[in-house]
Design goal:
By secondary structure, the protein is α+β, with helices and mostly antiparallel strands. It has helices at residues 6-21, 93-109, 115-120, 142-150, and strands spanning 30-34, 46-56, 66-67, 73-74, 78-89, 112-114, 132-137, 160-169, 174-175. It has one domain (6-172): STM4215-like, CATH 3.30.2000. The protein is built from four helices and nine strands; from the N terminus they run H-E-E-E-E-E-H-E-H-E-H-E-E. The strands form two sheets. Strands 1-2-5-8-7-6 form a six-stranded mixed β-sheet. Strands 3-4-9 form a three-stranded antiparallel β-sheet, with no helix packed on it.
């Protein structure tokens, strides 16, 4: 299962894949993780990935305890969903739209990110060998998009939103249990 670095590694993997798949038309494009301060002086051309929301996945919230390969038991993993805004940047509207079209197609083609892909762009072993992250286009309401861009005005840009689902962040707190009780006796009254 994933370590506490999984949130950052997921974004890095998405951008790493886009960068490696970039067509010659966009040879000079940059691919960067953004935070709010980056929107005031954005890149000249490329794709930014802005993590605007993180939630606990409520459909998998009450997971069982986790047991590792050595038989140690740990607190349950934390299932997290990551909400990203993908924004193309270019000098002209037409080039920006072509960049967005290519990026959306590329993201759709990689809708499941296996552990070896996720680990390639960060620390090896951060995701377990059988883990994967599902990446889905998740359009948000126009008002929600306006609310996000309200912070960055007058720099509002064409964008599309995605969700990376079910990142399982493991606990490092080991659970210890006492030995099993073989017999239990209850006595009442006075011995005489």
């Amino acid at each position: 299962m994933a370590t506490n670095k999984a949130i950052a590694l997921t974004g890095q993997a998405i951008l790493g894949i886009l960068s490696s798949e970039c067509p010659p038309e966009f040879a000079g494009a940059q691919f960067e993780l953004y935070q709010p301060s980056n929107f005031s002086s954005p890149m000249e051309e490329g794709i930014s990935l802005y993590l605007y929301r993180v939630t606990i996945n409520t459909s998998r919230r009450n997971l069982a305890k986790r047991t590792d390969a050595q038989g140690k038991t740990f607190r349950p993993s934390l299932p997290v969903d990551l909400f990203y805004m993908v924004t193309p940047w270019a000098r002209t509207a037409a080039r920006q739209q072509r960049l967005l079209g290519w990026a959306m197609r590329a993201l759709e083609d990689m809708n499941t990110l296996p552990a070896n892909t996720l680990n390639r762009y960060g620390e090896q072993g951060s995701f377990g060998p059988h883990e994967a992250v599902e990446l889905i286009c998740e359009p948000i309401a126009l008002q929600d998009m306006i609310n996000i861009w309200e912070v960055f005005k007058p720099h509002q840009q064409l964008s599309v939103t995605y969700i990376a689902r079910m990142i399982m962040i493991d606990s490092e707190i080991e659970l210890t249990e006492g030995p099993l009780v073989g017999a239990r006796g209850v006595e009442a009254g006075e011995k005489g």
